C-alpha cells in the first residue's frame, strides 16, 4: 500500500509541474497537496507545496510570507528565513523555485519598509508576470522543421517518454524512437499515440515571463506513407473458433482473479480491483503465470 501511494504521489508531483509550466498555478498547488497527503515523506514534496503556495498568494505580500496583518519586522524576517530554506533554488528542483524565491525577497522588502499598499504590490506583480505580445529576441526564431529536429536530437532517441492517450487518457512509457515512428498504439483503445507538446515559460533578465510556442506535432498516422500497420488476417468460414475462457491467473499485487476472457498465449491484462497492468502467460483454462 505504501509503495502504491508513493507511485501515485510521484505522478501527482509530475503533473503539478506540468500544470505550473502551463500557467495553471491553482491546479499545480492542488496536485502538490494531494501528493503530500498520499506520501508525506516523499523527497521534495514539502518544498513543492511551499513554492506553489507562494505563487498562488502573490501579490498579497502578507499571504506570501504567511504573516498576520499587521506584522512586526522581526516576524517578517523570521518567516522569510523559514520559507527561504524550503524554496531556495539550490534546494528545490521545481521550475517555480526561482520565481518563488524572488517573490519572498520582494515581500520581505515591502513589509519591512512599510510599502504594503495594494497598488504598489499589483504594479510589481504585473511587471514581473506579464506576457508580452512578442518574445524579446535578438535573433529570429528557427524554422519549425529545424526546431523540431534539434529538439529531438537533444532529447535522445533511446530515452523513455510518458505519453497519455488523447482519447481514453491512458498513460504509458514508450521509447522515443518508437514513438516517433507513429506505430505505437494505446493499450486500452488502440489509438495512435503521439509525442505530447509542451509549452515552455522562459524567465528573462528583465523580470518578465514569455511563452515559447511548442513545435508542430508529427503528422497523423494515416498521412505517413507505407507505415500503417497491416489489417488483421480474416478468419475463414470453416475454420473452428478458438474457445475463450476467463483468465485463471491472479493479480500479482492484490491477488484478485482477472476477469478478462482470454485464450492460450501471452496477454497484457489490467486488474479491475487495483487497475494495475500485468503480463499473463496463459497455458490453459486452469494454468497461467504472471510476470
In words, what does this structure look like?
Helix content is 39%, strand content 14%. It has a three-stranded antiparallel beta sheet with strand order 7-8-9, with no helix packed on it. It folds into three domains: 2-129, Helix Hairpins, CATH 1.10.287.110; 144-221, no CATH class; 245-290, no CATH class. The protein has helices spanning 2-21, 25-38, 45-57, 61-65, 73-87, 97-113, 118-129, 144-155, 176-180; strands at 160-164, 171-175, 200-203, 209-212, 245-246, 261-262, 265-270, 277-284, 287-290. The chain contains nine helices and nine strands.
List the helices and strands and how they pair.
Layout: H1 2-21, H2 25-38, H3 45-57, H4 61-65, H5 73-87, H6 97-113, H7 118-129, H8 144-155, E1 160-164, E2 171-175, H9 176-180, E3 200-203, E4 209-212, E5 245-246, E6 261-262, E7 265-270, E8 277-284, E9 287-290
Antiparallel strand pairs: 1-2, 3-4, 5-6, 7-8, 8-9
Organism: Lolium multiflorum (Italian ryegrass)
InterPro entries: DnaJ_domain (IPR001623), J_dom_sf (IPR036869)
Domain J: 60-133
Amino acid at each position: 500500500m505504501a509503495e502504491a501511494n508513493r507511485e501515485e504521489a510521484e505522478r501527482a508531483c509530475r503533473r503539478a509541474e506540468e500544470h505550473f509550466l502551463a500557467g495553471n498555478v491553482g491546479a499545480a498547488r492542488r496536485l502538490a497537496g494531494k501528493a503530500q497527503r498520499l506520501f508525506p515523506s516523499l523527497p521534495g514534496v514539502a518544498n513543492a507545496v511551499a513554492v506553489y503556495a507562494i505563487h498562488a498568494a502573490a501579490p498579497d505580500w502578507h499571504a506570501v510570507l504567511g504573516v498576520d496583518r499587521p506584522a512586526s519586522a522581526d516576524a517578517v524576517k523570521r518567516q522569510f528565513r523559514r520559507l527561504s530554506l524550503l524554496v531556495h533554488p539550490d534546494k528545490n528542483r521545481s521550475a517555480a523555485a526561482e520565481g518563488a524565491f524572488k517573490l519572498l525577497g520582494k515581500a520581505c522588502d515591502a513589509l519591512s519598509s512599510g510599502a504594503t499598499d495594494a497598488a504598489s504590490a499589483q504594479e510589481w506583480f504585473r511587471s514581473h508576470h506579464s506576457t508580452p505580445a512578442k518574445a524579446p529576441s535578438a535573433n529570429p526564431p528557427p524554422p519549425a522543421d529545424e526546431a523540431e529536429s534539434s529538439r529531438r536530437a537533444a532529447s535522445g532517441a533511446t530515452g523513455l517518454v510518458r505519453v497519455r492517450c488523447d482519447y481514453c487518457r491512458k498513460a504509458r512509457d514508450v521509447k522515443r524512437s518508437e514513438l516517433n515512428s507513429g506505430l505505437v498504439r494505446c493499450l486500452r483503445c488502440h489509438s495512435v499515440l503521439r509525442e505530447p507538446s509542451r509549452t515552455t515559460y522562459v524567465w528573462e533578465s528583465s523580470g518578465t515571463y514569455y511563452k515559447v510556442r511548442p513545435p508542430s506535432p508529427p503528422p497523423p498516422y494515416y498521412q505517413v506513407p507505407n507505415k500503417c500497420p497491416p489489417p488483421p488476417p480474416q478468419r475463414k468460414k470453416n475454420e473452428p473458433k478458438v474457445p475463450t475462457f476467463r483468465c485463471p491467473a491472479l493479480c500479482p499485487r492484490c491477488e484478485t482473479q482477472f476477469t478478462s476472457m482470454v485464450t492460450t498465449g501471452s496477454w497484457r491484462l489490467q486488474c479491475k480491483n487495483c487497475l494495475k497492468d500485468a503480463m499473463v502467460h496463459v497455458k490453459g483454462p486452469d494454468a497461467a503465470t504472471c510476470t
